[in-house]
Amino acid sequence: MPTAIVTGGAIRIGRAMALHLAGKGFDIALLYHKSSAASEKTIQEIRSHGVRCQGYLEDLRKLDEAESFINKVLQDLDNVELLINSAANFIQENIEQTQFDTLVDTLNLNLMAPYLLMREYKRKVNKGLIVNILDERVEKTIPTFAAYSVSKVGLKHLTELAAVEWGQTVRVNGLAPGLILPPQGGDPDYLEKAAKNVPTRTHGKIENLLQALDYLMENQFVNGETLFVDGGSSHC
Ligand SMILES: NC(=O)c1ccc[n+]([C@@H]2O[C@H](COP(=O)([O-])OP(=O)(O)OC[C@H]3O[C@@H](n4cnc5c(N)ncnc54)[C@H](OP(=O)(O)O)[C@@H]3O)[C@@H](O)[C@H]2O)c1
Q1: 200: CATH
Q2: How many domains does the chain have?
């Protein structure tokens, strides 16, 4: 069986991707941080597909944990073919408001950890596909989530650099969601209200992201691309 590594795999988008891949027969290495109860539930659901799943509690703000993670997975699971970097924070502070800890944590978790995970994947696995989960904001200039936006723009560029450097053995692509899930704990009408600003006047569904993931996995000549799943919002 092939193995997929999914960071942020216990909840929401990461969880949906991990379950989707389990349904396709992938063993799953599932990285979580605070969602230990949710991770247990997700791991059980993944195993119910008849595949192996190993959970890993890691804090990806700590770069030594990020750098050693791929090795840990390789001790437990075989035939790794896919890395999905989905774990991220999303902190609403413009540049002036940005707390020192926000800046450091955001760049470490959303950019530097994927950098190290990708490099270890290339060094130790050296085949398959890396998918970095980005955001439609990489095409926009909205200062409200400043450190977050910088981290995702950096990750998009890193995706392109790695695709050029490693394309012979490892494809690297970005997947940029738009309005898919409301922020955690937000207004229940958030999606309906925000959809009014999307060109399609709808919000996306997780299934739309899973279709995009399937495309990136199947099309062997797509490398260094960012696939926007955002109803066209990145062009507004
Ligand atoms: N939701 C959307 O509509 C949307 C739109 C655009 C882009 N995105 C991107 O899509 C991805 C998933 O979004 P989401 O909304 O499903 O995410 P989310 O609900 O905000 O969850 C964040 C994920 O990151 C993990 N995480 C947070 N801090 C961590 C740390 N220090 N170490 C390791 N893991 C950590 C969390 O794990 P624990 O819960 O275990 O701590 C959780 O799985 C993110 O990259 C996000 O930027 C989402």
Answers
A1: 3.40.50.720
A2: 1
Closest atom of ligand 1 relative to the 36 alpha carbon: 40
pLDDT digits (tens, 9 = 90+) for 13-44: 999 999 999 999 999 999 999 999 999 999 99
The packing angle between helices 63-76 and 113-124, to 10°, is 30
Assess whether pLDDT exceeds 90 at residue 213: yes
With a threshold of 0.85, does the pTM exceed it? yes
Residues 218 and 171 sit within 8 Å (Cβ to Cβ) = no
Residue range(s) defining the domain that contains residue 205: 3-235
Report the length, in residues, of the chain. 236
Question: Which of 6, 7, 11 has the most ligand 1 atoms within 8 A of CB, as the residue to mutate?
Answer: 11
- Residue minimizing CA distance to atom 47 of ligand 1: 88
Q: Does residue 127 carry a pLDDT above 90?
A: yes
